[in-house]
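Posting this for the archive.
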Amino acid sequence: MGQILVGTCSWTDRALVGSGWYPPGRRDAEGRLRHYAERFGVVEVDASYYALPGERNSRLWAERTPDGFVFDVKAFSLLTGHPTRQAVMPEGWPAEHRDPAVLDRVWDRFTAGIEPLRAAGRLGSVLFQFPPWFRPGQRAKTFLRECAERTAGWPLAVEFRHPSWWEPGQADATGALLAGHGMAAVAVDMTQTLASSVPPVTPVTSPRLSVVRFHGRSTAWGTGSKEDRFRYAYGEEELAEWLPRVRRLAERTEQVHVLFNNCCGEAAVRAAEAMTRLLDRDPPAARLPRARSAPGAPPTPGPRPTPARSSSSSSSRRAAG
């Protein structure tokens, strides 16, 4: 049985900081991260999506967290083909992902920025979250191959935002594509009432890692403000729906990261705490049949002798913590 780590996708979100979840004396940058790391085992860094990560922050994060704590770092927006603000580009480089010279420099800067986490054994994964217009096809295959070549040896996770990747008739090919590059498929929980809704499939494409991201089930997804999109409080029944699926993933991978992205006030940390309680309460023996690996996935190692561990943590949305 693999290790299960539960966390959230922000530890410095302004609404969370202002919610009172952090106790007095633990509300500065160092205190917030230490408070999280004492309770949870994984955190997603999505500040690195908005601006290139710096070596100093990565070094501080590694120093302020215990052994076993890991960071899932979201790839910089330019590296996944998202629009990127010129203001965040270093040294006046143009924000143009189609420019090979710019792309080389950005990759170098991103690699250097997360190196302290890699060196300290704190890098859980690098998350490539692709935009809704990134669809199956030869161009996407080439893009993924180039990402794999530039990140050889990194733990990678890929989230697709266009539902066609996991539709019947395409899902097997998608799984085989990710497995061929050693990339972990990201499963998502979100509202299923929209044309853009990604189905909650849980393919296993890497023996090292599986990732599940909970975006909330707001129907304002893709249309409303950031607050409207992520304003959602999960109930225990909704979380319990995922227990068998998470357990099945843990049977086939070394680690499962369960991350809550409903970052509005303290909703994400409360959901992460609730999921941790449910996992601790749910006996591992009560599992469904083993999850099916995607076609082309490498052999999966046998069961690990240590019991699954559930822990929860969260990430940086805008600043060092």
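The chain is about 35% helix and 15% strand. The beta strands are 3-8, 42-45, 70-74, 123-129, 156-159, 183-189, 209-214, 255-260.
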